[in-house]
Amino acid sequence: MKTKEDLMFQKTRSIASIFYDAYQLYTENFKQLFRASWPIAIIYALVFALATYLFISDLLPIVVTLPAFSATNWGAVLMASCLTLAAQLLFVLAALLLASTAFWACREHKTTGTVPRPAHWWGVWPGLWYIKMLWKSVCFLFRPGLRHFGTLFATFFITLLFTAVLTLFCELPAIIIGIANIKAYAGAAAGDPLGMPDYMGKLTFAAFVIAGFIQAYVHLITVFPFYYAYGSIDTLEKERKRIKL
């Protein structure tokens, strides 16, 4: 177990230390993070469920059965595509909203060395400071960040790999139901009965909401490795300037 001093922001770290300290910071402050983010996580889960459900129930059947029909209702295809795309865009916005909680935690930890308990039961919602932090992060990437491309790339690659594996487990219900729907609608296009119970839609949506809520806290951790990578690069840059002086 690392001490508070070990987890401080301003410190040079190896790639292994970046991920270990990020995991430690996340797990030690999970209660505070959960209290700060649970309303946003619910929104994230609902939007995820909507986007996935529209894709599986509306767009996927059309795509699967399209080759079987000579006269295609392109209006229905366009409507299903637009609804699915709109839901996907809402999901991206919900993901950015969720990331704001992690940005808040990183900002508080950088300033005070701790992640405080939120003052209100409705958690922490982004303000103008979130936009400012996003802008500073982009500027940092294209200025001193390019000199440390290896650190940033390794952090990005390992985080992406870790997130992809855990997201796959979270989305197994969606994948299984999607495969089942493909087979069912392909069979229906060939003349077989659909064989899907009436309650399947509600059950599917509920399963996606639960999976999305769990997935929210898988994705929340992805901000913290970049927080420590930024701290390590910032420390190295300050040391480099001090040596030049």
Kindly describe this structure.
With 245 residues, the protein is mostly helical. The protein is 76% helix and 0% strand. The chain has eight helices and no strands. Helix 2 packs parallel to helix 6 and helix 5 packs antiparallel against helix 8. The longest helix is centred in the middle third of the chain and has 39 residues. The radius of gyration is 22 Å and the shape is elongated. 24% of the residues are buried.
Feature tags:
245 residues; mainly alpha; 76% helix
Describe this structure in a few short sentences:
It is built from 8 helices and no strands.
What is the residue-mean pLDDT, rounded to a whole number?
A: 84
Unreliable spans: none
Measured on Cα atoms, how large is the radius of gyration?
22 Å
- The dominant shape is elongated
Individual helix count: 8
- How far is the N terminus from the C terminus? 37 Å
- Outline the biggest β-sheet: none
Helix content: over 70%
Strand content: under 5%
Total number of beta strands? 0
| Classification by helices and strands | mainly alpha
Order of helices and strands: HHHHHHHH
Element layout with pairings:
Blueprint lengths: L14 H14 L1 H36 L8 H39 L15 H15 L6 H22 L1 H18 L10 H21 L2 H22 L1
